[in-house]
DNA sequence: ATCCGCGAGGTGGTCGGACCACTATGCGCC
DNA sequence: GGCGCATAGTGGTCCGACCACCTCGCGGAT
């Protein structure tokens, strides 16, 4: 009754976003459930369809809603992967010192995840890890190496048993992020070193040795971290060509 | 030249989002810089103002852009706090087993951050920590305790020297998140224990003892984590009163 | 000459309607 | 009974208008 008088805080779109978020938070909207149509929702919240669409778009990019053309709007499964997809944006837009900070976080999480994986990994999962390890060593195509490298670490993160952590690590290792950092790193003949480090991680996993796994993973990420730190130190500028701002 | 023919992938809004993100990623749009008007941008990208507004709204909720009514659209400083604000959404919308996973991640990061802080914290920062510790012990108002509790950990995270990690921890400790979990936790007379744990963390910081700090922080978060795990185990339901879905 | 105030222009915010693209459903035809 | 197409309904896009708010410069008062 008392909420009929508009609180008038912020834009109507922002209010609509909060309303829908609240509905989900309170359990009035279950994962996978279909929402009313844009037009109905707009009427229910007393706003125009344009504003409602902006709210839906916002919740869509956040991974909370999913719009299917011609079908309807649905709540996602609200799983870690859905909601943490935006984490990749942070990695992609960060540069300079923040890249080092992101790698530091990845080192902390990746080492812990690898240690957990050493204790929990199943035979099947270990076989999957070995598959990517072999594929990584069997080709010279940087694209393919990168893909299997990502899958290698992803499999380990999943084996650690924490889906959320796996999703965060996935974001911290997004294609564009690694491509940017690794472009220079691997040009310095770091392939061999990378292979040795991956082999060490695999050995620790196969031996079910959490401490060795933690150390190997920390060293693996730490190598890249140190290299990047050194890159930024001397010149203080982020890599890449300086493109003058267009009109 | 070859990009003049529309690639026709996805919705025009999604394409606009990618375009603007790319402009920022390539450095053509600097942090803090003002963008052209919505109307001009729409013309430049060859889409309607409505679609452009949806793209801008999307980038706004991601913390990449900031729209000031009557003034213009600006690129944010792209700092950790700006981009990771959405991380709180994850915490707010997660429930059940995922809450435990989030606490596990917080335990890993918070313990490491506290260890780093023990080695790096300045006298001023330590005084600030003590201020919040004292304020926390001087009141019985749960709201105020929660606020100083958040500030206590935030100050430590900042002292660790990794802004990004501080921002993530901030998201993992968002008001609504903690309020939900702590409501039940603190009702079990955990105030005294919490105060002891905070005191232990402070002692380790004052003694500049990283290992003790790591252990104290891990135990602090671990306590809540274990309690929550126990809550979820027996009944398999998320805590809190079972409110029947409202109409 | 300096300062203050107010008004005009420009900006994002909201609205309503129209049409297009796609999907799903069911009815009728084979 | 099964298949295919017409159709209604959905999200996607566009347009034009108006509103609320901020900014800046012009003009007058001091």
UniProtKB/TrEMBL annotation, chains A, B:
Segments forming domain HTH gntR-type: 10-78
GO MF term list: DNA binding; DNA-binding transcription factor activity
Gene3D superfamilies linked: GntR ligand-binding domain-like, Winged helix-like DNA-binding domain superfamily/Winged helix DNA-binding domain
Keyword annotations of the record: DNA-binding, Transcription, Transcription regulation
SUPFAM superfamilies per UniProt: GntR ligand-binding domain-like (SSF48008), Winged helix' DNA-binding domain (SSF46785)
Signal sequence bounds: none
Pfam family, one: GntR
Protein name: FadR family transcriptional regulator
Species this chain originates from: Streptomyces coeruleorubidus
């Amino acid at each position: 009754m008392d909420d009929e008088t508009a609180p008038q805080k912020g834009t109507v779109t922002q209010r609509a976003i909060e309303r829908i978020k609240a509905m989900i938070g309170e359990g009035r909207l279950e994962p996978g459930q279909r929402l009313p149509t844009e037009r109905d929702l707009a009427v229910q919240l007393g706003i125009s369809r344009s504003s409602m669409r902006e709210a839906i778009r916002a919740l869509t990019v956040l991974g909370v809603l999913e719009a299917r053309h011609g079908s309807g709007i649905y709540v996602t499964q609200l799983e870690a992967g859905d909601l943490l997809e935006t984490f990749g944006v942070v990695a992609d837009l960060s540069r300079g010192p923040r890249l080092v900070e992101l790698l530091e976080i990845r080192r902390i999480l990746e080492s812990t995840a690898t240690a957990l994986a050493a204790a929990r990994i199943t035979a099947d999962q270990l076989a999957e890890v070995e598959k990517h390890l072999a594929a990584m060593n069997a080709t010279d195509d940087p694209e393919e190496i990168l893909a299997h490298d990502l899958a290698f670490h992803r499999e380990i993160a999943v084996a650690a048993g924490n889906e959320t952590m796996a999703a965060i690590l996935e974001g911290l290792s997004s294609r564009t992020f690694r491509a940017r950092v690794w472009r220079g790193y691997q040009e310095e003949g770091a392939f061999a070193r990378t292979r040795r480090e991956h082999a060490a991680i695999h050995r620790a996993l196969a031996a079910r040795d959490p401490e060795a796994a933690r150390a190997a993973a920390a060293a693996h990420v730490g190598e890249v971290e140190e290299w990047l730190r050194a890159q930024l130190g001397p010149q203080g500028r982020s890599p890449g060509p300086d493109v003058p701002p267009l009109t």
